[in-house]
Design brief:
It contains eleven helices and six strands. The protein has about 280 residues and is mainly alpha-helical. The radius of gyration is 19 Å and the shape is globular.
């Protein structure tokens, strides 16, 4: 139901979410438009034009974020990306990664001090206008549709968990990808493309939110990739963890997140920032 609701909404805004031809919600069935096989991931692997692909994706976000909130966020469409939700995601690091890498449950006091660091950071970015945050806006969930004009050329998938939140989130998700390395010059070019599209944007405040949300997402992803292996028997995600640790470390140091950096250095020193070897639970 959330997927169908959001797909129809995104299509009403002019974006290329899959058309729903038929729906049987009680039985969990949808007949969907097939957007094809040309995911951004596949196109990039086949030496597609990286700059063109990322430019189009950024332009989708510019177009979406230029729209007024009452257009992108109709009443009761999506919940808010609030502090408790962000905290619960950040706790995935302490609740899944730390036990897997140390072999012991995380002490409650350790978890509590971690949350006390995150709470004021997340609270500091709750003010200001909110937009529709698709939440997993990255190359695995974008489809290249060159036959369609303008922003319709970027097909959208995996948006059923969308929330109302800060516009920096999806841009960060695209440019700080857990699954692939992106050159700094391309990141900077895409950041400037986005920032320059908004004349009245407070760049300093936006980048502060970008960094905090990035650090939170990277902590979350480290925990999720660990959980996918330990709980769900899907170890194929583990090899991305070293990349995500680098992204988290960069966010901490470039964003001035000193308290978080001190906590990480104390409880997860560099020798523990790797791929967990704990076997899946039964």
């Amino acid at each position: 139901r959330p997927f169908a609701r959001l797909a129809r909404h995104l299509r009403s805004l002019g974006y290329s979410a899959p058309e729903i031809f038929a729906e049987d919600a009680p039985n969990g069935l949808l007949l969907l438009e097939d957007l094809g096989d040309d995911t951004y991931t596949r196109m990039l692997a086949d030496k597609g034009d990286e700059r063109a692909l990322y430019t189009l994706a950024v332009d989708v976000l510019i177009d979406l974020h230029r729209r007024p909130g009452d257009e992108t966020l109709p009443p009761s469409l999506v919940p808010t990306y609030d502090v408790p939700t962000l905290l619960n995601e950040a706790y995935l690091l302490t609740d899944w990664y730390m036990p897997a890498i140390t072999g012991e449950p995380t002490a409650q006091e350790t978890r509590d001090t971690y949350g006390e660091i995150w709470r004021p950071l997340f609270e500091s970015i709750q003010n200001g206008p909110k937009t529709l945050v698709l939440r997993d806006f990255h190359v695995d969930n974008l489809i290249w549709l060159p036959e369609r004009p303008a922003t319709k050329g970027c097909g959208l998938l995996d948006f059923q968990d969308a929330l109302a939140g800060h516009p920096a989130y999806d841009l960060m998700s695209l440019l700080e990808d857990a699954r692939r390395d992106i050159a700094d010059d391309l990141i900077n070019e895409m950041l400037e493309r986005y920032l320059s599209a908004f004349d009245d944007l407070d760049r300093e405040a936006f980048m502060k939110a970008y960094t905090i949300l990035g650090a939170g997402r990277h902590a979350k992803v480290i925990g999720i990739f660990t959980r996918l292996s330990v709980r769900d028997g899907k170890p194929q995600y583990l090899h991305h963890i070293p990349r995500v640790w680098k992204l988290l470390e960069r966010a901490i140091h470039t964003g001035g997140l000193d308290s978080l950096g001190q906590w990480v250095d104390h409880y997860i020193p560099k020798n523990l920032r790797g791929i967990p070897s704990c076997p899946p639970t039964t």
